[in-house]
Amino acid sequence: PIPPLHEAIKQNQVEVVTNLLQQSDIDCNKIDIHGKSPLHYAAENNCTELCDLLLLQKGIKVDIVGRDSPLCHAIKNGHIDICEKLINSKVININFLNRKKRTAVHIAVESSKPEILKLLLSKGAKRNTKDHYNRTPLYYCLKYSDLDKKKCFLLLLEFEDQNDKVDVTTLDGNGDSALHWAIRDGSEFMVKRLLDLNANSNAQNKDGMTPVLDAAKRGSVKILKMLKEKNCNFEQLNNDNRGVLHIISLSKSQIGIHYLLENFDIDVIIKDKKGKTALHYAIEEYKPSFAHKLVIACSYCRTDDDFNNPIHIAAKKGMSSLVEQLTSQSRNAVDKQNKNNETPLHIAVKRDDANICRILVKKKAKFDIKDKDGKTALQLAVEKNCEQTVKEILNKAGERELSNTNNKTILHVAAQKGFLNCYKILIKKELNLCWLKDDDKKLPLEMAFMMRHAEVFCLLLKNMSSDGKIDEDIHIVQYFRTALEENI
């Protein structure tokens, strides 16, 4: 249960408290089960008269800590009169540290209480004390900043005390400076003030991030311009080997890369630890305008760790205009294979993207390249029943390019799947494939018969009957006789 003195203060019962304090055995510093002393409750509930009574008690501990000090409770609740009474008491240590090693100045800033902060500074509270995270009060102005936190920021920077100037160069436990925090918060005003005070604009944190890289991540051109004016290093890389172009390509910004490419001579072909350039990320993040700029500036044939070049990625993302631009730059990159032996054409077929297939066919992409499963792009298109894509590839493909590692032709594949419309397209091409057998010595006609695809079977039979060969092929006659006898 809560002790009587604590409860009486909590209820602001002045007369009861007065009587209790006269008892010889009363402990006015006792901590209850909630980690609070009587003074905590008086400060928390803005009980100014009770606060005065407690401060008159012999042996009262103003800096007593349960979960925090009474002064910190008063600050958090914005009780400036209580704060003033506690600060003016003769027994307080105004720079007392709580369990997180934070001072009253930390709490005032974090709680957005500029009036209380001004009071603390006027009484000699220090501005550069570091807490458990190695952060000074300045850091807490720079996160989720509102108008009151901006006022706190200015107070910390400008309050006149020749013996305690605010330190803008210190680094916290993560290696972040106040400038890092201000940039992440997006406060251009605070960034400018810190830069004017010579904050370390090239400091790298534990992840290797600099203020420039943080500004790129946020996509803030205005802050990047401020950093440029201070001659910051725009070529530093973070621990993932990513530079400013990588970072901004991964950001939400749609304009930052134009500023960077126009104003800096940055190496655009640097690969990060995943083997990717900024162009790879610009394509992956669906930023065509970024990608177009980077294509002009960089080596578009570079591959990532999976051996995908930018054309592979653009095809995968369905970015047809970028595929057009990339393939115009280099014919050799059109047929490059990734770790799965896929060309950009294979990837476009998997998406059933006839438009990109048309572009790649026009750029003379090879059709006889096989993926790790031994399949050409056309065979994949037939397997997926991608009719328009089949048409685009067939416009250029020849017979020698139409079989896979099992000697199956595209007619075998279509017969097995029963794709009638694909079959019609293939038949119209008048390819001499009907009589080609696979490794199991089966014709496409037999495949259609086995899989019970009647319409495809009839179409093939009609096409094969036109040259008279079917009547002469003893193998076919024997096959169908046996099949019928077995009721297939």
Please describe what this structure looks like.
The chain has 488 residues and is mainly α. It has a domain at 168-299: Serine Threonine Protein Phosphatase 5, Tetratricopeptide repeat, CATH 1.25.40. It contains 28 helices and no strands. It has helices spanning 4-10, 14-21, 38-44, 48-55, 70-76, 80-88, 104-110, 114-122, 147-158, 178-185, 188-196, 211-218, 221-229, 244-250, 256-263, 278-284, 288-297, 310-317, 320-329, 344-350, 354-362, 377-383, 387-394, 410-417, 420-428, 444-450, 454-465, 474-485. α7 (104-110) runs antiparallel to α8. The mean pLDDT is 85. It holds the Pfam family Ank_4. Keywords: ANK repeat, Repeat. ANK repeats lie at residues 34-67, 100-132, 174-206, 207-239, 340-372.
Topology (elements, then pairings):
Elements: H1 4-10, H2 14-21, H3 38-44, H4 48-55, H5 70-76, H6 80-88, H7 104-110, H8 114-122, H9 147-158, H10 178-185, H11 188-196, H12 211-218, H13 221-229, H14 244-250, H15 256-263, H16 278-284, H17 288-297, H18 310-317, H19 320-329, H20 344-350, H21 354-362, H22 377-383, H23 387-394, H24 410-417, H25 420-428, H26 444-450, H27 454-465, H28 474-485
Helix pairs in contact: 1-2, 2-4, 3-4, 3-5, 4-6, 5-6, 6-8, 7-8, 8-9, 10-11, 10-12, 11-13, 12-13, 12-14, 14-16, 16-17, 16-18, 17-19, 18-19, 18-20, 19-21, 20-21, 20-22, 21-23, 22-23, 22-24, 23-25, 24-25, 24-26, 25-27, 26-27
